[in-house]
Design goal:
alpha/beta; FAD/NAD(P)-binding domain; six-stranded mixed beta sheet; 17 helices; 42% helix; globular; binds flavin-adenine dinucleotide; FAD-binding domain-containing protein; oxidoreductase; flavoprotein; monooxygenase
Length: 463
């Protein structure tokens, strides 16, 4: 089979590695990733490349967005089961966050939450924590691993412009490139992010399937500042205020390693003039001038704004693929960053899809229960993949919607209502569970292997 993955972000690279690991006879298949953007420089503080000069291009690739992110324990477990060396390398270049500290702009500490999954995992299982990392650090570690495992040809730099199914039943899928080239393939895996051309190939350009700007944008960057208190508390700090949100944490052992970000409300996608660094810095100072945390002020005083990003989400789609085209990660479910789950859900997608393709191909080899060809196997895998993954993602998206409003502009009454709500959820965990469900348990007890086993068993039982 010829398999093309479009996009070498976190989801694309992870899908590549999982397929190499799980396909019954990987050398019998051709597997390649096509990526449109050359990576930015190795330093997180380096200027983004020239083609990030428009918001449209920023939205096409989170690699260009840069900044930092937290990989939650469920995502780290996917990396652990994929390859321990990769997991350890991701953890080593990042910063192990054992606590989330929630604050109010007025200086109150509203609560602390442990990030570790020890409480809900078997006791002999080593506890996983949230790993804070520059996006580039995570991506580069995964990229190097993919090259080590798959060779230098694993990732090719070519922009895919469209994907077309051949008209006659059973024919292949044509991937068309910006350079005018074309390739006929059997399976296209769209890991091409929020502005996905693979999603367009499946759903066309209808507005109801297009990404939506959520009315919030963010700025962020990295600094070298003394941060013994941040490191000692092993914490990522989130501060909520009446006119936005501010977060900071260490991003790992190598300076500049104080990562920070600030989210603010803008009813429309910011215009290109808003990308002027001096304008952004002025707005940042203005926005947070009355906030009480001295670390926040130290950061803002020293900050150079490196990335600006409008936030997009992808609406719930009726399916995530059919007839040889399938989506993973942000291309099918870009979610509000408040969830802290975008990357981890991409990792879970990739493992689930690879396990299903592998299992269905094994059944095709023995022509088991009507699965006679590789095409049958792929179609079934795509269908089961959506069956497993969409309810999980929908639950996380819904929870994110409840929390996202807490970053919007509010008056003084709502500001204190927000503080009270956040305090209450952490001070009385049963109320948090009542409002949001048992988040820790539902995030960290999910297992791709178990879910795949269950759907295949159900299939056996029904036939
Ligand atoms: C501000 C912000 C903060 C976030 N914080 C967190 C967090 O703390 N924790 C978390 O888990 N998640 C977080 N996320 C979400 C997370 O970053 C994304 O969910 C994740 O990066 C998605 O990975 P992906 O590989 O699916 O997509 P992307 O990272 O967007 O990768 C898509 C890739 O496809 C390439 N591509 C696009 N179009 C084409 C084409 N036509 N041809 C070839 N290649 C193409 C792109 O260049 C890119 O490399 C955050 C997101 C944002 C915006």
């Amino acid at each position: 089979m010829k398999i093309v993955i479009v996009g070498a972000g976190i989801s694309g690279i992870s899908t590549y590695l999982h397929l190499l690991k799980h396909l019954p006879n990987p050398s019998a298949h051709t597997l390649v990733i096509y990526e449109s953007h050359k990576p930015r420089s190795s330093s997180p503080s380096a200027q983004p490349p020239a083609d990030s000069a428009t918001f449209d291009s920023l939205s096409q690739s989170t690699q260009l967005v840069g900044g930092g992110l937290g990989i939650s324990p469920n995502g780290m477990r996917i990396l652990l089961t994929l390859d321990k060396a990769l997991h350890d390398a991701v953890a080593a270049q990042g910063f192990c966050v054992e606590n989330f500290i929630f604050k109010g702009a007025n200086g109150w500490t509203l609560g602390t939450q442990k990030t570790g999954d020890g409480k809900v995992k078997a006791i002999d299982d080593k506890e996983e924590f949230c790993i804070a990392s520059s996006r580039h650090g995570l991506w580069e570690t995964m990229f190097k691993h993919a090259i080590e495992v798959g060779g230098s040809g694993a990732i090719k730099y070519r922009r895919v412009v469209s994907i077309v199914r051949e008209a006659n039943e059973g024919a292949g899928i044509v991937v068309k490139f910006e350079d005018g080239g074309e390739e006929m393939v059997d399976l296209v895996i769209g890991a091409d992010g929020v502005k996905s051309v693979c999603r367009t190939a499946l759903f066309g350009t209808e507005e109801k399937y297009a990404p939506k700007y959520i009315g919030q944008s963010g700025v962020g960057g990295f600094l070298s500042l003394p941060m013994s208190s941040i490191v000692a508390s092993k914490a990522m700090t989130f501060t909520f205020g009446p006119n936005g949100f501010f977060g900071y944490s260490s991003s790992g052992p190598t300076p500049p390693n104080l990562m920070w970000w600030s989210t603010f409300e803008t009813s429309s996608v910011p215009s290109i003039k808003d990308m002027d660094a001096a304008v952004i810095k002025k707005a940042l100072v203005e926005r947070h001038k009355n906030w009480k945390d001295p670390i926040l002020h130290d950061i803002i005083k020293n900050a150079d704004v490196e990335s600006v990003y409008p936030t997009w989400t992808v609406p719930e789609l009726p399916h995530w693929g059919e007839r040889g085209i399938v989506l993973v990660g942000d291309s099918c479910h870009a979610m509000d960053p408040t969830t802290g789950q975008g990357a981890s859900q991409g990792l879970e997608d990739s493992k689930t899809l690879a396990l299903l393709i592998a299992e269905c191909l094994k059944r095709a080899e023995t022509e088991h229960r009507g699965i006679e060809t590789e095409k049958d196997a792929v179609d079934l895998a795509i269908k089961l993949y959506h069956e497993i993954r969409s309810p999980r993602v929908a639950e996380i998206v819904e929870r994110g919607k409840k929390l996202a409003g807490k970053k919007a502009n509010v008056g003084p009454v709502m500001e204190y209502v927000t503080y009270f709500f956040l305090w209450l959820m952490m001070a009385v965990p049963s109320i948090g569970k009542f409002l949001l469900g048992d988040v820790l348990r539902s995030l960290n007890t999910w297992s791709a292997e178990e879910e795949v086993h269950k759907v295949l068993q159900k299939l056996e039982d029904s036939s």
